[in-house]
Specification:
Catalyzes the dephosphorylation of undecaprenyl diphosphate (UPP). Confers resistance to bacitracin. One of its GO terms (molecular function) is undecaprenyl-diphosphatase activity. Belongs to the UppP family. With 291 residues, the protein is mostly helical. The chain is 76% helix and 0% strand. It contains twelve helices and no strands. It is globular.
Length: 291
């Protein structure tokens, strides 16, 4: 892989990850167009996703910082309650338990945890399928067509009023499940999860925030899994430089596109993206049979 190819792929990842047009599908298509063969499986794709993960961290840092604080608060209160349970079992002087989920941010933390569980399970089950289907154009093409349908559904879905305190754990599980399925190339993660959020009655702005922040543990987990196997991969020094440059580009472009997506969602202007997915998906399917 050349540095120019890495830059192009970084731009594609940054744009497609946060606009609802599927980064995995576009990366797969671009690999065919540019004749890229990295010989490192999904490592380069995961590094590009790590770049967009950085973009999410920067864009939502205030929320993420508070979520981390409240996450430790939940853990602390849980440990305290365990201690008080032991005390109450052996003493007549009963102590009150702390309320663990005592704020909207704490509820948000638990919702993300619940969403991450089905995401991780489905992603692991589909790992080999994703690697195989990423090498073809037929699956990304068909999934892009499905993404277009989902975006039209999102466009017609009336915005709900649910924010963190109103979202149920069942809602969180369903949204997490859709994120796991969206690991299939061509199926937009943001488009799929935002559609799921809106269908569950979430407020539009909160749906976008939820979609982007819930991607953090999923992407971080994928990065950890790839790093674990990094030592067994034969990566040339020139490729390492290209990978790093692509990651940085993905982070910068991703940050810009997050801001763009926030504007798009407020206006609920998904139709243009849906039609774009229909066009690109159709071209990919046809190209698969004629190329």
């Amino acid at each position: 892989m050349t540095i120019l190819q890495a830059i192009i792929m970084g731009i594609v990842q940054g744009i497609a990850e946060f606009l609802p047009i599927s980064s995995s599908g576009h990366l797969s298509i671009m690999k065919h167009i540019l004749h890229i063969n990295t010989d490192t499986g999904l490592l380069f794709d995961v590094m590009l996703h790590f770049g967009t993960l950085v973009a999410v961290l920067v864009s939502f840092w205030k929320d993420i910082k508070q979520l981390i604080i409240e996450g430790f608060g939940i853990l602390g209160d849980f440990i305290v309650n365990i201690g008080r349970l032991v005390h109450n079992l052996h003493s007549k002087d009963k102590k009150e338990y702390n309320k663990v989920i005592s704020s909207a941010y704490r509820k948000f933390v638990m919702l993300i945890v619940v969403s991450t569980i089905p995401t991780g399970i489905v992603a692991l089950l589909l790992k080999e399928v994703v690697e195989v289907t990423s090498e073809t154009l037929i699956v990304p093409g068909l999934c892009l067509l499905l993404t277009g349908v989902l975006l039209l559904i999102a466009d017609r879905t009336v915005s709900g009023k649910k924010r963190a305190n109103d979202v149920t754990y069942a809602n969180a599980g369903i949204i997490g499940l859709t994120q796991g399925i969206a690991t299939l190339p061509g199926l937009s993660r943001s488009g799929t999860t935002i559609t799921a959020c809106l269908s569950c009655g979430l407020d539009t702005n909160f749906a976008v925030k939820y979609s982007f922040i819930m991607s953090i543990p999923a992407i971080f987990g994928a990065v950890i899994l790839q790093i674990k196997d990094f030592g067994t991969l034969a990566v040339e020094s020139t490729e390492v430089v290209a990978y790093v440059i692509g990651t940085i580009i993905a982070a910068i472009v991703g940050y810009i596109c997050i801001k763009t997506m926030l504007v798009v969602v407020r206006g609920k202007k998904y139709k243009g993206f849906a039609y774009y997915c229909f066009v690109v998906g159709t071209i990919a399917v046809i190209w698969n049979f004629v190329a």
